[in-house]
Amino acid sequence: MSIGNQIDGLPTPSGTPGAPKLLEVRDIVTRFTTDRGSLTAVNGVSLSLERGQTLGVVGESGSGKSVLSRSIMGLLPRANTERSGQVIFEGKEISGLNDTEYRELWGDEMAMIFQDPMTALNPVMKVGLQITESLRFHLNMSKADAKDTAIALLKAVKIPEPEKRFSSYPHEMSGGMRQRVVIAVALACGPKLLFADEPTTALDVTVQAQILDLLAEQQRERFMGIILVTHDLGVVAGRADEIAVMYAGQVVEQAPTALLFSEMKMPYTEALMSAIPKLTDASHTRLAAIGGRPPDLVNPPKGCAFSPRCPYVQPRCHEEAPALTPSPTAPEHLFACFYPIGSPETEEIRLRIAAQRLMATAPQFVTPAQGPPPIGEVPAPPSTADQPEGM
Amino acid sequence: MFILKKFGQLLVTVILVTLFASLLLELLPGDPTEVLIPSGSDQQREDLRQELKLDQSFAVRYSTWLGNFATGDLGNYYTVSSDRPVSDRLWQSLPVSLLLMFYAQMLALIFAIPLGVLTAYRKGTWFDRTSNTAAFAMLAIPNFALGFLLQYYLGVKLGWFKTSGYASPSESPIEHLQYMILPTITLAVGQIAIYMRLLRSDMIATLQQDFILMAKAKGLKSKRILFRHALRPSSLTLLTVAGLNIGTLIGGALIVEVVFALPGMGLMLFEAIGRRQIVAFQSMVAVIAILYILVNFAVDLLYTVLDPRIRNANKS
Ligand SMILES: Nc1ncnc2c1ncn2[C@@H]1O[C@H](COP(=O)(O)OP(=O)(O)OP(=O)(O)O)[C@@H](O)[C@H]1O
Ligand code: SF4
Ligand SMILES: [Mg+2]
């Protein structure tokens, strides 16, 4: 099951045979009580992860990625939250722990990197203290040892002048530097499992790659399992061993990375794919959003949750909800769709859509406009006006 | 630059406040010397009238006082037998008032900070709701009414504390506390309610922040998260209000001193008004105004300690 990212000479990502998996999650359901009723943010997710491996969790905003990570880690507030399912960490069921028992795991065995480095660090605490406090608490280090370790960590995440930065406040650093500090905090006690919840979304494109490379490097050195959460398939493409695609709180497609990209089955995954920002796009361009809105999680649609937005929707999709099942050709490839990409029904529709697009844009090619359009200004094809806009 | 601006602010405030205060005393009818030295001879009265420049215009009287005050001469407190310098009495009564306000502020914060933090943490629980109701009740009781109640029940009926009078801490620290406890509680109760509710709402906002979740994900204990991570960024409003509140506190202290016969500025001011001690009154009002501004200045400095981002903004 290990594909890509495997380096010769390192222990195999699958760990010792027979040993329990690093993480095994079975049928997690997380509901919030809201004014409008019960909101199902995570709906029956099962996953597993070995040490040294990366699982990418991909989905658009609101698909339940953060709630899933927090449910696994046990970080959700207890009030108004209802959680069920099993979380087995190194062979031990942890979902029923109380906060005191969780504290032994948090920061020490499992850690989390947050989306926005501008808000994830305490603005009134020096960054050094934010790193040393968990060292002192979990590893009972002396003040001096903790300081040395923290400076070594700052060096490891490639912060220039780590001794000086130890006494800086977060606001004295750039976004990329702060995210490195956040990573240093997460790595401090040597966790086995790292949740990275959109670690680069708030950063510049150039900084994004640096941070992701840093994570990969630290993962190799520390042999951590990483759950890399993102809305951007492009981020996990070259970095995850396996990808789980989430929609409306459910995993709708899951496969080893290469297989997912070569044999994509879900219409939703296909739509996410076309939303990957191209290198040629100006930085910070909004993603070509998937048409339509994410479903209401209090009153989800009947049948397949993606049916209101799916280009290949058939009558059956409105009636029955497809279950996550292995592909007949590759059992490690799971998907939840009645009419996956490549099936006769979708092929026919795909061709029809392509033909319609072509016809809608055709006049441009048939009757040339008065001279070529000015550079940088592309005349919009008439069809785009009819396409629903998302986001 | 910063200091200069503050000094200008101080000057303007002192002048405005004392001008207004002395104008009010001007409005009282009759000859002040009749109240000042009721049993004095005609000659004595005439001398006093000369000294106070009562036959001249208000502008002359005020500017003379201002000039004297600026050079440190606070004027005299007039009686038939002897005139005592206002500064003498000031040195005796100012510490009493300052101590009273200090104790009250400390007591208020000692109760309000943990209560504010815990009610925010336990938002919506039985504990939060009870504290909230209690806070409203405390706010609704006027200072003097609470003072009389405490005086009667804890002082007179139970005899636990002294109900009127004063001993300085250097004379007898125990007695000093016995005298100060009831006035301090009286003055602090309303402040506890205000501070607690302010801190609670700011804490609730802070506890939603990412860096709190991050602190939790580090495995820190709730106590550390609340008091080391959340309290400081939540306390800026509290600090501002505590500074602004010095005005309310001074007003409250004046009333409480009268109720408990504490020989502080309030009691002295009360007397000065009753006895038409114009000069003493003006000087005391000026001293109180200066104090008020100095405290607010200290609050400004404290901001930069609490929030390093302000420190940088000030530098640049
Ligand atoms: N504490 C909460 N109470 C009620 N609803 C919540 C709560 N936390 C999350 N939700 C809802 O759960 C759904 C999933 O949220 P989640 O934050 O997991 O999405 P996400 O996939 O992480 O999206 P994003 O990319 O925007 O971070 C959303 O509809 C959100 O409104
Ligand atoms: S089940 Fe139907 S609606 Fe759902 S994704 Fe597949 S084709 Fe689209
Ligand atoms: Mg999220």
From TrEMBL, chain A:
<dbReference type="Pfam" id="PF00005">
    <property type="entry name" value="ABC_tran"/>
</dbReference>
<dbReference type="InterPro" id="IPR013563">
    <property type="entry name" value="Oligopep_ABC_C"/>
</dbReference>
<keyword id="KW-0813">Transport</keyword>
<feature type="region of interest" description="Disordered">
    <location>
        <begin position="365"/>
        <end position="391"/>
    </location>
</feature>
<keyword id="KW-0547">Nucleotide-binding</keyword>
<keyword id="KW-1003">Cell membrane</keyword>
<dbReference type="GO" id="GO:0005524">
    <property type="term" value="F:ATP binding"/>
</dbReference>
<dbReference type="InterPro" id="IPR003439">
    <property type="entry name" value="ABC_transporter-like_ATP-bd"/>
</dbReference>
<dbReference type="InterPro" id="IPR017871">
    <property type="entry name" value="ABC_transporter-like_CS"/>
</dbReference>
<keyword id="KW-0472">Membrane</keyword>
<dbReference type="GO" id="GO:0015833">
    <property type="term" value="P:peptide transport"/>
</dbReference>
<feature type="compositionally biased region" description="Pro residues">
    <location>
        <begin position="370"/>
        <end position="382"/>
    </location>
</feature>
<feature type="region of interest" description="Disordered">
    <location>
        <begin position="1"/>
        <end position="20"/>
    </location>
</feature>
<dbReference type="InterPro" id="IPR050388">
    <property type="entry name" value="ABC_Ni/Peptide_Import"/>
</dbReference>
<dbReference type="InterPro" id="IPR027417">
    <property type="entry name" value="P-loop_NTPase"/>
</dbReference>
<dbReference type="Pfam" id="PF08352">
    <property type="entry name" value="oligo_HPY"/>
</dbReference>
<dbReference type="GO" id="GO:0005886">
    <property type="term" value="C:plasma membrane"/>
</dbReference>
<dbReference type="GO" id="GO:0016887">
    <property type="term" value="F:ATP hydrolysis activity"/>
</dbReference>
<protein>
    <submittedName>
        <fullName>Unannotated protein</fullName>
    </submittedName>
</protein>
<dbReference type="InterPro" id="IPR003593">
    <property type="entry name" value="AAA+_ATPase"/>
</dbReference>
<feature type="domain" description="ABC transporter">
    <location>
        <begin position="23"/>
        <end position="273"/>
    </location>
</feature>
<keyword id="KW-0067">ATP-binding</keyword>
Automatic annotation (TrEMBL), chain B:
<feature type="transmembrane region" description="Helical">
    <location>
        <begin position="133"/>
        <end position="156"/>
    </location>
</feature>
<dbReference type="GO" id="GO:0005886">
    <property type="term" value="C:plasma membrane"/>
</dbReference>
<feature type="transmembrane region" description="Helical">
    <location>
        <begin position="236"/>
        <end position="260"/>
    </location>
</feature>
<keyword id="KW-0472">Membrane</keyword>
<dbReference type="InterPro" id="IPR000515">
    <property type="entry name" value="MetI-like"/>
</dbReference>
<protein>
    <submittedName>
        <fullName>Unannotated protein</fullName>
    </submittedName>
</protein>
<feature type="transmembrane region" description="Helical">
    <location>
        <begin position="176"/>
        <end position="196"/>
    </location>
</feature>
<feature type="transmembrane region" description="Helical">
    <location>
        <begin position="100"/>
        <end position="121"/>
    </location>
</feature>
<feature type="transmembrane region" description="Helical">
    <location>
        <begin position="280"/>
        <end position="306"/>
    </location>
</feature>
<dbReference type="GO" id="GO:0055085">
    <property type="term" value="P:transmembrane transport"/>
</dbReference>
<keyword id="KW-1003">Cell membrane</keyword>
<keyword id="KW-0813">Transport</keyword>
<feature type="domain" description="ABC transmembrane type-1">
    <location>
        <begin position="94"/>
        <end position="303"/>
    </location>
</feature>
<dbReference type="Pfam" id="PF00528">
    <property type="entry name" value="BPD_transp_1"/>
</dbReference>
<keyword id="KW-1133">Transmembrane helix</keyword>
<keyword id="KW-0812">Transmembrane</keyword>
<dbReference type="InterPro" id="IPR035906">
    <property type="entry name" value="MetI-like_sf"/>
</dbReference>
